[in-house]
Structure formats: structure tokens, C-alpha cells
Write a structure and sequence with these properties.
Elements lengths: L3 E9 L6 E10 L5 E10 L4 H5 L3 H7 L3 H7 L1 E2 H12 L9 E3 L2 H14 L10 E3 H7 L4 H12 L7 H15 L5
Parallel strand pairs: 1-5, 3-4, 5-6
Antiparallel strand pairs: 1-2, 2-3
């Protein structure tokens, strides 16, 4: 069993768009305690907008504008290398990366890593929440309560806040003794 899990989320330029923000929370597997958290706005690669598009509806949801990305975003290549070093299959003691939206987050992860020419040998594989449940000492009743709690929470549509929300479901799933 790994010692830690990483709960990750992306915000994107649209449903089939490109990644514009990534955030993650690393937690202790046994206690769910937060050990590390990061979030990065991503200044997109020049061809991404032409290749993947920008949806005004998505901007309305997450509130991240092109101007914000231009002013505050970090180069996609820099973010990609950082993510690959932290979570890639070549990273030392890389925790499993968990998402509540695997198909989307894996696609955006792959787009991000390709921008930096990250080797497929250092691919970051995104796993579903069921992987976290299988790896941790989860209490089924606590998990059911955690899911009900999450459904009552507002979704922020910002990468770090959304990753923390999913990590909190995991922590609450560990039961009252944690």
C-alpha cells in the first residue's frame, strides 16, 4: 500500500479544450491528513487554442480569463515538467494520482505533458476514486456519508478547491477514528 495519495483536478478551456489550471492535494493514506498542495495556472502552448478551442461558457464557470492566464500563468512546459517529476512513473515514490473525472483529467494531463515533450515512459496515469478506496482503510458507512456530504457542497470550479473536496471525501471515508 502506498503511503500517500494525490488528488488532482484540472480546469480547462472547454469540455474538449486544453488545460488551463491544475491543482493537487497529497494526503496520508492512513489518516487522510493533507501533506502537500499546489495549484498552477497554465499559460497555454501557442497552438492549443487553434487545436482545442476556447469556450466562453467554460470561462463563465471557472472565472479564469485569457488575460489572467497571460498575466499569471506559468509556461505549459514548466508546469508539465514539474507534474512529471512529482507524479510520473519515473518519479521517486510518486503517489497514485486520483481524480473524480478520469477521462477528462487524463486527457488534459496527456495534453499538458505532450507540450513539454515529456517521454511516454514518464507518463502520469490518472486513477479513479475507486483506486483510493481500494488502497485505504475505508469504512463503507463513512464513505456513504462522505458522498452525501460532498453532494451538498458547492463546486468551486477551481483546481485546488475541487481537488481538496475530493480529498476530503477520502478523509471522511476513513471513518470516525481518523
Amino acid at each position: 500500500m502506498p503511503k500517500t495519495l494525490a488528488f488532482l483536478d484540472f480546469e480547462a478551456s472547454g469540455y474538449l479544450g486544453f488545460p488551463i489550471e491544475v491543482g493537487w492535494v497529497v494526503v496520508d493514506c492512513l489518516t487522510g491528513a493533507e501533506l502537500d498542495a499546489e495549484s498552477h495556472l497554465i499559460a497555454h502552448a501557442p497552438h492549443w487554442e487553434a487545436d482545442y478551442g476556447w469556450a466562453a461558457e467554460a470561462e463563465e464557470v471557472h472565472g479564469i480569463s485569457r488575460a489572467t492566464l497571460a498575466a499569471e500563468g506559468v509556461s505549459a512546459a514548466v508546469v508539465a515538467r514539474h507534474v512529471a517529476a512529482r507524479f510520473g512513473s519515473g518519479g521517486k515514490d510518486a503517489p497514485p494520482v486520483i481524480s473524480d473525472a478520469v477521462p477528462h483529467d487524463q486527457r488534459w494531463m496527456d495534453i499538458l505533458l505532450a507540450a513539454a515533450g515529456v517521454s511516454p515512459n514518464n507518463r502520469v496515469r490518472v486513477h479513479g476514486f475507486s483506486t483510493a478506496l481500494a488502497l485505504g482503510p475505508v469504512d463503507e458507512a463513512a464513505y456513504a456519508g462522505a458522498v452525501r456530504w460532498m453532494q451538498a457542497q458547492p463546486v468551486q470550479h477551481r483546481a485546488l478547491a475541487d481537488a481538496r473536496l475530493v480529498a476530503e471525501v477520502y478523509r471522511r471515508s476513513l471513518g470516525p477514528a481518523r
